[in-house]
Amino acid sequence: MDKRDKTSILLLICLPIFFLSGTLTSSHTFFMRDITYLFHPWRSLSAQMIQSGLMPLWNPYEMGGMPFLANCQSAILYPFTILFWIFHFVIGLKCFHFLHYALASLGFFLFAKKCGFSKIISFSGSVLFAYNGYSLTRHEFLSVLGSLIWLPWLLIFCIQKISKKNLTQLFFCSLVLTFSFFSGFPQILVLQIIFAFLFSFIFTSFKSNIALDNGKFGFKQNILDWIKILILFIFMSAPQWMPTLELLQNSIRGGPGISFSEAVTYSFPLDSLFGLIYPFRILHHSDRFTGEKFFWIWSAWWGFTASFLILFSLISKYKKLIALVVSLSAIGILWSMGEYCPFFEFFYAKISFLHLFRYPPVALYLTTSSIALLMLVGFHSIQTAKLNKNFKKLILLLLTLALSLELWFYSKNITPTIIPEYYQVTFNAIKSVLKDRPGTVLLSHKVNSQRRLAGMSSQDAQMRFRAYLFDLTNLPYRIKTINPSGEPLALNSFQELYQALASSVSIEEAKPLINFWNITHFLTEDFLGSDWKLIGQEKDLKIYRNLEALGSAFSLENKENLPISKNQKKLEFSSPSFIKIYNHKIISQFILETAKLVIFTMPYYPGWELYCATCDSKPNKKIPTFMFRNYFTGSHLTDGDHLLYLVYQPVSWKIGMILFIFTILILTLFFMRIHLKCLTHQLRY
After folding, report:
1. Are 379 and 125 contacting, i.e. CB atoms less than 8 angstroms apart?
2. Which end of the chain is more exposed for a tag (fewer CB within 10 A), N or C?
3. Residue 668 domain flag
4. SS3 168
């Protein structure tokens, strides 16, 4: 690496400062949509747990309780999540953005250099890959951003694998895939594997002076290498995919997966196709927030300069590479069109893995990644043209400058920013709930379903983002809610019970289930009856206390088919004499005169086990549990004194960690053996 390479790398590292709306050089920060709704809550809660010495395996505050680590987007195992555990969220977010955009551009630069492209061409390609519309608008979706940057690094190790063909390169390929998976967006990982797998075949036959390697390993060898990579990846990522698979089986994503109607939500419209070049032609959407420059789901622009250079790639002699990337680019566009593509419904019915994709425009990642490669070849066609050498250098420099400035122009004020105190404010509505020691909080279905922020002033929208406990904004306060969220992995049992609650004609009709679910606080804009106590208000939002909630655990008459109905008041129930609730554990004591049915409002889920410290003179006896009313955790207890421990101990996590540790130990021994062989060889000669 020469001095000019180092200069290019230094410049690439500094580019995020210019492309991220000034957030890296000012106190302001991004707050739009999922940063506030999902990622700030997840990162803040996991930081609180880690700092308390707890492994974030279970999240008791989200939708009545659900697995935490098993949810990919929580990214608890992703190495860069540690930034949010060390720093305050705003500082952690700035560091996360800076490192990821720098890594994206640096990775593509090194990849292009490995392929033999010149410094200026490699620099231009890295700018386009890191700051195209797809990459830039995903700054608020930390799981997507964390995944998409790893493609060029995967391609680098694919190239080295072909040339050196040893376990070290296979290991690094697997490691990159593991990082991409741990970041929390498996759909991007699938697209990366498809892209890199196909590229590795093209590269092995890439006979040219811009290729680093003219490797002649055959089709079978390439297949074998990829099998080894994927096997290593499966073992290394087991602590994540094993709990995640268990969650998928118990979530609304399990079984048939996403319905076709949901899978074509936000399909890329034909009228916005020109927006792939010029983003101001992207159609307006009702979900766009006031102040957002472009609608993020349809954003994947690359600009006029890159389009001009792509034309030159079509006259290139590298026909196989051009055929591959043009095909992948076209597939990405057709896939993103969803319901507007005449073949999409047919493929959706025939190809099961498409059911895992929530929005078709995710596939535009294939398109933007292919466009970056096409532009490299277009640049190279100009560089190798029979023109004056100095004139070509000037043309390449001007095109690089034009590309950078055009992308920078589109990035200016791409989304609104806000002062960092926004993430520290506790609104009056939240204070009222916290002061009243809540059990479970519910936001009115009416308010939740009418929460669109488009058209509101920024001030009102900012208040509503967090004061109303939309989505997961309750997590930083450790307030347990059963509000549905944008979370695509809601438990099936939760979904069914919440739908029964939401379908109630009136609050009076829903009251028995509300009481049974231990909903102690209700946030609404309506006035309620005497069964509720008004304890606070913020603007139109009223906070009511439910005086009849049954508690987090209680005992009932020993019948599994007890109805949750309007006759609930006639049921005889009793509260535990003692109860203590932790993140992964509930300790309670029941002193029963007769056999009873004990109910915990925690959802019945694999990994939760009930132990009794005082039953039958046998300490820590395991007590059988069952699913009560298709959601709650129940157990039959005899008369007597029962000190109960309900503990979350997921077997899937334990097995995943065993596989991971076993793999690391084997690899360590293997690399030590190689190192010893090298030392022995050096000593001999």
Report:
1. yes
2. C
3. no
4. helix
